[in-house]
Batch of 4 targets.
Target 1
Amino acid sequence: VQLQASGGGLVQPGDSLRLSCAASGGTFSNYVMGWFRQAPGKEREFVAALTWNSVRIQYAGSVKGRFTISRDNAKNTVYLQTNSLKPEDTAVYFCAAKIGVIDATYATYKYWGQGTLVTVSS
């Protein structure tokens, strides 16, 4: 499956962005979908993930209550609504896909998009 992330940009603290990740070349509903991010000089970290039917959802503690992950299987797209953005949310955001159980470990995700840059700055 190929993944294409979009929606990043430069915003001010407190603003919102909706990131999208369009999938192609596979059966989208087979996959657990996740979002990860990587800030300059830091390791890639888990942000959120959800199962094919959105029944199970996980968030990193740093984004819980501010970010919302969702998916539209009819559109082969997963979204990340980011609210109340902070400068520490600045990173390249990647979408990823895996078969199997939901988890926060990036090494278990087989398919990755190219990333979209989110910069939060005043």
Note: The mean pLDDT is 96.
Target 2
Amino acid sequence: QVQLVESGGGLVQAGGSLRLSCAASVRTFGSYTMGWFRQAPGKEREFVASISGNGGGTYYADSVKGRFTIPRDNAKNTIYLQMNTLKPEDTAVYYCAVRFGAQHGNWRLWDYWGQGTQVTVSS
């Protein structure tokens, strides 16, 4: 059983920064692809960023490229989402996920999910 616990969400003004964390209870954490997705009210869940098990490969949605990064600390079984220059359109519930396979942008192909953390960006 895999458990993912996100933290770090909150309210921030446009142009500000937030860092989300996702702690995973899983053996051999460094073997797994990890990712962040988000879902705004009335919209489908969408890919934000992902990182390979060893951290050597990352992918970002075009909408966040250059503003967000997804570092991971395998010693702490944790990934992060560093969000800079936040915009009101970044407002959503952010979910951490693990995939037992290669990185993929389709949220339906991911295996385990956290409970989500709300990020609200005011204009």
Note: The mean pLDDT is 96.
Target 3
Amino acid sequence: QVRLVESGGDSVQAGGSLRLSCAASGNDFGSYAMGWFRQAPGKEREFVAAISWGGGSTYFADFVKGRFAISRDNAKKTVYLQLSSLQPEDTGVYYCAAAEWTVGPLGTYEHWGQGTQVTVSS
């Protein structure tokens, strides 16, 4: 079992940057692939990015277009999402999730955090 807590969400202006963090509890962080998802008001939750168990492979949604980066520090049990060149359409609640057996946009994520709010104003 793993518990996930996101942080780093904030209100920024368009063009700004944020770094989101997701801290995990438990002893087996390295056995989970990690993903970030987001949900905008009135929309379904969507995949943003994912990173494999050791960090060697990363996956991004098409809309990211090189603006975001995902990384992980298994010693700190933390996964990061660096957001750059933010636009108002990036506004939403960002969730991190852990997947034991699969990775990427089609993976099955068994554990979810509570989310952190990102608001981008024009």
Note: The mean pLDDT is 96.
Target 4
Amino acid sequence: QVQLVESGGGSVQAGGSLRLFCAASGSINKNYCMGWFRLSPGKEREGVATIDRTSSTIYAESVKGRFTISRDNTKNTLYLQMGNLKPEDAAMYYCAARYWFCPSLDKPSDYPYWGQGTQVAVSS
């Protein structure tokens, strides 16, 4: 089993920055794909970014150039550095994990492990 706990959410003004954290425990190791997803009212769950076991990354077009996903396998921690935040980035952000390969960003149901989420609010 894998447990994921997100933190780092908060309220910022447009143009501001936040760094999200996802602490992983249990049977997780460097061979897991990890990703960030978000959910806002009235919208479907959206893939934000993924990082695989080789640290290769994929980003949603909407966040490219503004967000950076990274991981520290020694600390079993996943990060999401978010910059130049926009009101449309406001959402509950979740981290997810899957052993070995990374499903595409539009396949959140392929991730078996999820955290409880951390809320991000962006005011204009």
Note: The two ends are 40 Å apart (CA to CA).
